[in-house]
């Protein structure tokens, strides 16, 4: 405050400047500016969604100053919005902390005082849209992320559409609306919230070391639940409450024993896959298929996994939709894509490419309709179920390396099926999650090497292209100088052989001829032979065992 100016010295203004409240405000603002500046310099993106107050960057005395100031400011804003006298208010000790908005309102009031005295108004002064926004944020922690509003409810953040936000603001501002204040004030506050950089998040704080639950952050390596931090923001969480007493899951143990047929490798694999799906880790570079006979428990497993996640974290695209240009944009912000009823159909090359991108743990480019392409770090894991083997258009070793198949080999008779099994498993979810995350930690220590299962080599019926042609030539072909076979007949026989091994046929004759020549070089001679009115390609020196396929 400048006392050496042309204005008349105002003793009351001087007393206000040196009052306890004013001193407390200046102290708090100084601490806040110091921490925020240091944080901005150290943050790669230039800022974080919230200013972090920790034991490391503040002293106990500074934290006490911030707490006192925050409580006092929140109480003043709250009472001003209600039209009461702020000078007689006692600070409340149970108000939620939201430092940026509260301190910002203090700065605005300081600017008002510097600009000049307030103009007299009839009746009580009405709070501005900005002050109402600050008062609202003092009661509700709101975050704007990727164009959407998220509201903290308890320990988690929940997606809120604009209509829900309008309803929440209506309840909050109802005392003002009842006095005749124009309802457009609601839209004004929402517009300010959209533009407020202090509540915008550029990223989430999810990481593999912890999992967010309905009652806090669970640290699997320590078996410990801790409160979420004031700087935390996340859009995915497990819809369960952690309890240290929940240690047994006998129904799920019996389920695993049944669907695995008692195979120890399958049981370990089920726990590893479940734990990896529940974690915030994408480094496993894998996608998962429950493959086997009908009525074997695949849907129960899929429904159980889906039940762990909040609704906004789930997507339900089938694998064949991945060929669409904008398919990856539908998975943006999702943490699990699940489809438990894949038909027997060929998977396109485009879909294979999308699967490899989503499981590569690399930043990719996504396209959304009417928006520019942008970089995106995938967070969505893929879980599929089918009674049939996958049939890719191209047999891709990279795809095979990322596929983890859990075999479901045993069909359960209708009269032995427990219609209430899923309900029983839902009761055990806390213990299931803890045990599964333990299996995930062991998997991580093994560098994400999922337990192999005897007789299951990733894709059921999969044979490498080179091995497939080699086996066909050895088992189906006869090499004699007097033999001659048309290329079309060889290709038909080879495709019948591929289908018998659950592998899609080769429709490109040139691709088939290239593979066949590479394995039969020196044994056969390409030769065109006239057949009727046409000259057809074929090979001299090779014949087929058995009848020629129609």
Protein architecture, described:
The chain is an alpha/beta fold. It has three domains: 11-201, no CATH class; 250-445, P-loop containing nucleotide triphosphate hydrolases (Rossmann fold), CATH 3.40.50.300; 465-544, Winged helix-like DNA-binding domain superfamily/Winged helix DNA-binding domain (Arc Repressor Mutant, subunit A, Orthogonal Bundle), CATH 1.10.10. It is built from 18 helices and 19 strands. The protein has helices at residues 11-17, 20-42, 60-81, 99-115, 129-139, 162-178, 184-195, 250-260, 264-278, 298-308, 327-330, 349-358, 397-402, 421-427, 429-445, 465-476, 487-500, 509-520; strands at residues 142-145, 148-153, 156-160, 200-201, 211-213, 216-219, 224-226, 287-292, 314-315, 336-342, 346-347, 364-366, 374-376, 381-386, 391-392, 403-408, 477-486, 525-531, 534-544. The strands form six sheets. The protein has a five-stranded parallel β-sheet. It has a four-stranded mixed β-sheet with strand order 3-2-1-4. Strands 5-6-7 form a three-stranded antiparallel β-sheet, with no helix packed on it. Helix 11 links the parallel strand 9 and strand 10 (336-342). Helix 5 (129-139) packs across helix 7 (184-195), helix 6 (162-178) packs across helix 7 and helix 16 packs across helix 17. It is elongated, with a radius of gyration of 33 Å. The termini are far apart. The relative contact order is 0.08. The model is unreliable at 1-15, 44-50 and 83-123 (pLDDT under 50).
